[in-house]
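Subject: sequence -> C-alpha cells, single chain

Hey, anyone have a minute? Need the predicted structure for the following. Not urgent.
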Amino acid sequence: MRVSAKADYAVRAAMTLAAGASEDAPMKGEAIASAQNIPLPFLQNIFTELRHHGLVGSRRGAEGGHWLARPADDITIADVIRAVDGPLASVRGESAEDLSYAEESLPLQKVWLALRANVRQVLESVTLADLVAGELPPPVSRLSEHADAVSDR
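Reply:
Had a minute. Here:
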C-alpha cells in the first residue's frame, strides 16, 4: 500500500488540531502548516476536503482558524485518508469485489480482498486521540515492531 503525501499531510494536520484546537480556540492554517512543514496552499485544499467530510470545522477572520468537528477519539486515520484520497484499497480504481477475473485468476481477487481487510483493520483501529497520546492499540504496536515492518521491499 502506498500512502500519498496528501494523506500523510492530512493525518498530521488533523493530529495537530486534535492536540490543541477547539471551536473556542481554533488554530490558524499558517501555524499548522509551519508546525508540520506542509505547504499552506496544499493544506488549505486538504482542509476543504476534511470540512466537506465533516471532520474539520473552520471560521474566517481574525478569530478564525480550524478545529476538529468531532472528538479526536471518534476520528480514525481511515476517516482522514478516505476524506482526502477515497477508498483505502482499490485495484485500478475499482473495489476488489467488483473486479471481473477469469476463473484461473479468481484467487487474486481474494488476495485483494484480504489486503483491504488488513489495511482497514489497522487504519480503522487508530484514532487521532491515540496518535496524540502516543498510545497505539496493542495489535498495531506489535505489527509496527515486527522485523518486516522496517524492511523496504
